[in-house]
Amino acid sequence: MTEQNKLRIGIAGLGNVGVGLVKLVNDQESLRLPGEMVISAVSARSKTRDRGIDLSGIRWEDDPVKLAISDDIDVYVELIGGSDGPARLSIEAALKAGKHVVTANKAVVAEHGEELARLAEENNVHLLFDAAVAGGVPIVRVIRDSLSSVNISRVSGILNGTCNYILSEMLTTGQEYSPVLAEAQKLGYAESDPYLDVSGMDAAHKALILSVLAFGAKPDFSKVLVSGVDQIDGVDILLSQKMGYRIRLVAEAVKNDSGVRCNVAPVLYKAEHPLAQITGPTNAVMVEGEPLGSVTMAGPGAGEGPTASAVMGDIARVLQGPATPPFGTPVAKLNERMVRAVGDGPETTWFIRTRLSDKSGALASLSKALAVCDVSIDQMHQDSSAGQLGAPIAIMTHPCTRKAAESAAAMVEELDTCVDKPRVLRVEA
Ligand SMILES: NC(=O)C1=CN([C@@H]2O[C@H](COP(=O)(O)OP(=O)(O)OC[C@H]3O[C@@H](n4cnc5c(N)ncnc54)[C@H](OP(=O)(O)O)[C@@H]3O)[C@@H](O)[C@H]2O)C=CC1
Ligand SMILES: N[C@@H](CCO)C(=O)O
């Protein structure tokens, strides 16, 4: 703290979130904070880039690791991103030097959270990452603190703003995937490498963090099953809509007798379902457990302002008092085993979508292939505005196992009338 009793912060990373944070610190008098703070030093790659903020009077440091251990800071704020490299090195250095750390970086917390939390506990400093999951929605704090006496059984929801923006914009504007992703990047929702968003990895990082907080799971990212929206195209969105459904990228962490299962996948919901109503970069998280029942929180999951406000809330937490274990459960007690969610799961409805060439008998051979695998058809929708690629066709199955649906899709792919590898998506009951 300075002589004027101000908390001294050092910010590494002046991109979307870092710039938003500088603006909030400059505007702190209008906020309800428990004390005052001052930016002592900043770091980014380019010292000369115009970021639209006034950095005069603030020390510049090229190396984030040096910034992290500087004598003139109490809190190191890491807003660079990435699971390794300067983000990880600087956070480790700060914790070892006895500095509090605030970060929005889910990749580094998901992949190295256990060792970072251990360092924080050993050095009796805060490691806070509320902005890392669901942006402006304070779900980390709620699960860690407010729900610590709830025996949580399941945490699920929409955890990636970019994917939700892509899925809902493609539906409402009819645009294809690439221009909508470019727009999400321009709006500051996407990661600097947007592959992390569209592949489902970013949501998987967040789901893993929630598993540790909610279940005391020993983090193991290799156990998370991940698929993203990069394989979804406009015709999937259109045909599912015509059948009364919306596609959402959903993350889920469930605890049962065998351990904690965590997965991320695109799922179809009835248009009236609450998650189908979540549009744009909004996130929604439902926590279920006893004796609570369930609680759902929704709000802006990405973007400069919401994310910076979550970072600022964590800095304010440092002003409030001494450090507690970063995951709620002390690292030495993170005992719950994570298991890979393999296996068939219960019978459910599946959405199978392909394209068939416009030949007589094509539909008959498709239904025969499904019947051979014991998959019966509940609904079928064909789009006759076929174009040269063949007619898109979508099927809702009666409840069957994943194995049966995937075997049927594999048989359909072998048909000489099939011109597009069938896509198989789970339909939520
Ligand atoms: N954007 C969002 O909506 C959200 C982002 N987050 C997380 O917040 C973090 C920051 O995201 P965001 O602001 O969008 O990212 P940006 O890509 O916009 O900004 C990254 C910043 O890090 C700086 N940087 C990169 N490498 C180095 C380095 N070696 N040394 C010093 N600085 C470096 C860049 O410098 P320069 O500008 O000079 O290139 C840039 O200022 C990430 O972990 C992200 O996952 C979390 C929630 C929401
Ligand atoms: N790229 C992330 C940022 C918020 O974590 C998203 O789109 O959700």
Q: What is the overall number of helices? A: 13
Question: What is the CATH architecture descriptor of the largest domain?
Answer: 2-Layer Sandwich
Associated small molecules: NADPH dihydro-nicotinamide-adenine-dinucleotide phosphate, L-homoserine
Given the helix and strand composition, which structural class is it? alpha/beta
Order of helices and strands: EHEEHEHEHEHEHHHHEHEEEEHEEHEEHE
Low-confidence stretches: none
| Helix content, binned percent | 25-40%
The global form is elongated
- Could you tell me the CATH topology label of the largest domain: Dihydrodipicolinate Reductase, domain 2
Radius of gyration from CA coordinates: 24 Å
- Beta-strand portion reads 25-35%
